[in-house]
Amino acid sequence: MTLKFRHFDTRLNEWIKNPSDPSGILTEELDNTLLEAFFPNAENDFSFGHLDENSAAQDLYNHPEGDILLLSSGGRLVYGPQEYLSQIEALCPDHKDRGAYGSIFIGACQNAILRPLNILIINDETGENGNILPNDVAWRLVGDCHGKISPQLARELSGSVSHVLQHRLGCLGGELDGRFGKGTLAPKHLDNLPRSSQDKTCIDLVLPTSSFKGGDKKNNPIQPGLYTNQRVWLGEKDRSQQGTVAISQTLDCAPFGIKDFLRQIEQEALELAEIQKDPRQVALHYCNAYEQFQKNRQQSLDDITEESEGSELEFEESQDPLMYRLIKADLEGHCQLLSSQKVVDELERFMQNQWRDLAVGKSLKFNRAMIIPSKDLINGEICDLRFPEGEELLNFRSPYLNSNGMCISQNKYVADAFDPEGKPFIGVVVVNDETRERIAQRIEALRNAGITTDEVVPTETESERQGRDFDGDTIGTETAKRYPHFTEEVGRRNLPENAYDPIKKEAKASFPADKSFEEIAIFMADGISVGVINNHATALEALESEIDLFREYGTGSQKQNYVQTVGQHYLQLIAQENHHESPVPIKEQYRDFIIQFKTEKGPILRIQTQKGTEIEVSNLTQYKHPTLFGANGELKKLDPSLSQLNIKIIENQKGLHQKTHRWKVLAQESSQVASDESSQFLPLGTLSEHSRQILTSLLNEESLARIKSGEGLITKNVSVEVASPLSQRQVKLMFRKAYDFLGEFNQTIPQEQKRAMAAACWHLGTNRGGEDQGGDSGEKGNRPEYKISNFSFAAFPEQVIEQLQQLQFTNLTVTGIHVAESNQHYGRVWDSTQKLPIEILVRQDLPSDHPRYNRPLVVVEGQEFAPLESRSAHLPIGTQALASIEANPSHTLSVQLNDPRINQPIQIGKVQQHSFANQTFRDESAALTLSFIKPEPTPVIKLGHQILGELDQASIHILEAAGRLVDGKTLEVSLQGQGKGYGSYLIATTALGNSFRINKLSKSFWEHSFNDQFVAVTVGFKERSPEPVLMKGGKVLGVLTQKESKQVLSKAGLLVEGQQFPNAVVNSHVTTATVTVDPDTVVYPQSWTKLAPEADQCNSDSPLLQDSRRFRTKLTQLPPLLFLKEDYEWTTANGQVEEQPALGLSVDARLIPATKEWLSAQGVQWEEAFDPDWVELERQRGYEVVFMKPDLVPLSVLEPLLERCGELLQASGQPNTYLERIESLPKLPSFVVSKLGGSMVKEVHNSVPPTTSVVPLPPSYKAELEFLQAQRTEAIAEIVHNFLYLEGKPTPTGAIAIGKSNTAVWDTARSELLLYSRGETDSSVPKMRAKYEGGCYTPLPIADTLEKLQHYGLQPQEVEHFLTQVQPLVKARLQQLQEVHHSKQQSGVQR
Length: 1391
Prior knowledge:
Layout: E1 2-9, E2 14-15, E3 27-31, H1 34-38, E4 47-50, E5 68-73, E6 76-80, H2 85-91, H3 95-100, H4 102-106, E7 111-122, H5 135-141, E8 146-149, H6 151-158, E9 165-173, E10 180-187, E11 205-208, E12 212-213, E13 225-239, E14 243-246, H7 259-276, H8 279-298, H9 301-307, H10 322-332, H11 341-359, E15 365-373, E16 381-383, E17 392-397, E18 407-411, E19 428-431, H12 436-448, H13 462-466, E20 474-479, H14 484-493, H15 517-524, H16 530-553, H17 556-577, H18 586-597, E21 604-608, E22 614-618, H19 620-623, E23 645-651, E24 663-668, E25 681-687, H20 689-698, H21 701-709, E26 713-723, H22 728-747, H23 751-766, H24 790-795, H25 797-803, E27 811-815, E28 836-842, E29 856-860, E30 863-867, E31 880-887, E32 893-896, E33 906-908, E34 924-933, E35 938-943, E36 946-951, H26 953-961, E37 970-978, E38 985-990, E39 995-999, E40 1011-1022, E41 1027-1032, E42 1035-1039, H27 1043-1051, E43 1060-1068, E44 1072-1077, H28 1103-1116, E45 1121-1131, E46 1137-1148, H29 1152-1161, E47 1167-1168, H30 1176-1180, E48 1183-1188, H31 1195-1205, E49 1208-1210, ...
Parallel strand pairs: 1-4, 7-11, 8-10, 15-19, 16-18, 45-49
Antiparallel strand pairs: 1-2, 1-3, 4-6, 5-6, 7-13, 8-11, 9-10, 9-13, 10-12, 14-15, 15-20, 16-19, 17-18, 17-20, 21-22, 21-26, 22-25, 23-24, 23-26, 24-25, 27-44, 28-29, 28-31, 29-30, 31-44, 32-33, 32-43, 34-41, 34-43, 35-36, 35-40, 36-39, 37-38, 37-40, 38-39, 41-42, 45-46, 46-48, 47-48, 50-51, ...
Helix pairs in contact: 7-11, 8-10, 29-33, 34-36
Region (Disordered): 457-477
């Protein structure tokens, strides 16, 4: 059964509305809950209320239907009928438990069973179990909230014995009736336990006493023993899974240890910046990230499949998130959605999150697993079967408070890590749960046995340091040797003299008996959560680490500035505290600081301007405006007069939340009228960021400047409504309901109509509307309203994906073709039947304020034509194609009347609605006559004898098609109101379910409340005033819509019926054209060009960033190593190789160019290693090496080298101190090494001065390298050719095929095959080049210098990749094509 919880606001005592729910109320459905087990017939009886830090106890007595508060879980409140309270109190006699364990009752489980079970309950501290098992045996079976489950019951509940199960439990009959609990259960054979008695009762569950919650612990505590035939509801809340956890929260504790991670982060940042240049790469990265997430989440499902007797768990594609499916399909097609606003927004959010995660270290991961205890492990030991036994493992639990929580434990394999079938548990790490008392007993026992030990009882055990229990907690683990600097610093910080003081975990305290549960719920939902407190504790540790970094690496001036800054801040605090009139205690300041970090809570105010714009004001409770709140801070009942409230919007320069809310809203208080108008406005709240973005797009520059200057933008007579703020959970629930509704909507449409319906919705969703001009709010007139086709994507995903296989957006709209200065085809008459070569380019060489700067432009026949309209379909910049061009009809005309009384052209509009639609005028002479005509009357809906409002255009068509658009026609409809005031409207629904919309409600109905009332309305028509037009030959040319034109004519006395203009000249305002692309001729660019981002607000040369770079460099810089190699192989001038001593210098690869320049400047000759394999160990760790002849290194160079390196290491013989030092350093990740290698080569070529003396390579070596290149080319040429045949896309010069690592190119004119590293086809040097003639491949040279050949040429591992990985796939594809071809031939013969 499913429990349905309706949501309501406790403060407003109103249901939270949601149109997507059938009931109209936001409803949440939860399956398999403990609450359902105890109340099996209460499917629709419960509801959720919500509270925040400003809620009062009296608010919690509110409920729309009079229900009462039963349970709470943080800010979630569970309400139900009064008669349920007695059972809740029986389950939780101590009122605090109704709040402490509310989450146990409402947590949905994946699976659940209800049946009689036999349960052995064990005291997990003493092992007492009712003499069923020896106490020491029983004690080893359990831990804090951890027990065991028989394999048979585990399979029945979850289908597997390979996972530890997080459970919820309720006893519904037997001696344990009314008991409930939670914890983890590890599958284990329970039938062979050493029984103390002859009782052979089958045991289903072994539970610790700590798993049971609630109940009367004082008078009726749970008793250990065997309980048989108990009616039990058991739910699987979750199961152990392998995963990863970000270690970002731990980095603050080891400022010097982060040198292990910084190089990786820097390289990931370089990769992300490279990806960001190309929208296709961003989309590919998006899809890869999602697929990796799915893989990590589902990686243990193979085991479940084996356990399920062959039943397959199918993860259908329809279950994937919608945006992933759309973007994935678009990448496999023409990439035509990548410039749509919906996809652009999604990818921008994704990249922002990627950069944020990278900046805070969230890309750094440890392995994550659920923990269970084992008595075979002692303090300092751990069991993670993913790592070798005996290794030291770093491990931590989230939330991470300080460095005490990072443990370094010895990996020891134990039996508890294996399931009943002898396989390792999936997603489980076994830890010790040894207490200090047991450690002391163990040490004492060793000493009594004559065994000496240095072990002492720690101040805190590992369990205490991490706050472990075993009800589903997870920890992150990683081998310590991977991060040696981090491990070293963590170890140092955890020495007894350096560690933080232990934090005592207090027991849950009960409340006084006279405290109501409503007051208890308020207290237990303290707004300052554990997470917030934890964040501030780690922030303090980060400050300590920052000081350590300044002390170690900061310059003298940096240290001085830091101390001065901190000192000035504290002087300010002291001054505030000692202020004689209004002292501010320092502790209160800290409390305010914490408040500013909390999320947005409390009611919100919805405001609607007279122009219909809706905005939201939040944080009302922080300001408590007297119009909304009483003297005691309570929320007032809103007066109807508030529909005339005046507000002012200003920049939030000093107020609360200024970092997250940039604009503040003030409101006029009607009870105080001052002579200075500004004093009438008091702070009301902060404008939500979403509303700020809406207003930013609507307001003109002058209005925005008034807001920013502090003068403020005043908007009068707005309507207001207090509403409930939606929690994150409620927002997600609403989205889920909306998607469910759209899925149901899709199913109601016949299959054959879905494509047409999807196309119509797309057109409506991407069409633009306009807004009326004027108004005191400073809104822009006639501003286009750009829409995003969210509805089409969500309602018709399959139809959209199907259409992506072919190019759909072939009609491109260009604008500004009337601007002669930039349109190089100005005045050209286009032949729409002629196809011309076009290219999409962008001008980023223009000034940033130029109208065509950074806008995609259409170039026709090599000459600039016009920019693409921003709402038009786009093709990637660099795309080439053939297209026809046709100027679009003009909607307005410019008329030179040539009358002496008027000397400026007149503008007329609505041209396309009259006789000369689709006609273009070019300096055409015409005799015109001014006349007044009466427009068609406006269809309206009447309620009684009053006009209710006007029908919108779509509704007019609906009624007209139904034959109901008849004057006096009566309709029986239900009316549902939306909004209040000027912009309000009604949805009218007939008895058959057909709906139409009524806009522009008459003012008398603005405050009327319509809530699905059935009424009889009448169709009517409202006459409109005559409007002036210009006639040509007795037909309407257009309407005088422009106010300025009418004023000019009126002032000249010409705005009269019948006025003649015999010598008028008419010109069309042709500003746009349609470019129709032939999809068969489209050639996409190999590398996309991304539009330049807006001006970066961050100054890259700011002192803060300079300091950051300096610290990063110092933290990650490898120490230079100077060594002597006695048997180095030098190449003489005549090409001979001689073993002679060499002085080697290993330096950080990033510093090698500067090092070589310095050596050359000192006159020291140096060379790189003759064979790159000689320095492979160094390169794996980020080093590069140069060699010098010792006798040619002057003392003036040798002394500073020795001083910088500290000592001279020996690289020959034994001990090889240099090799030992190199091998003691950690290797860099492989992709970092490859990146360093590429960047290093480029740096060397660019940085080494021409005067550098390098020993030349012998000619024989060059010949050998060329021979190897030819051999490797011959080995893979045919594979590359086949790959091009299968995957190649046409280009102007031949074809191209882009793989994961390489790009293959076919040059038709030269009959040449070329192979490049992916994305480097613009380079002049390919990695392979071969001529194809007569079925043979002739290797061609790729470079004119040996250095280029060394760098770009094919490597052995690449050849091996083509032979072992690419060739089998290519052969399989070719075989498949041959079979298809043969099948077609056979079917053709049969026909």
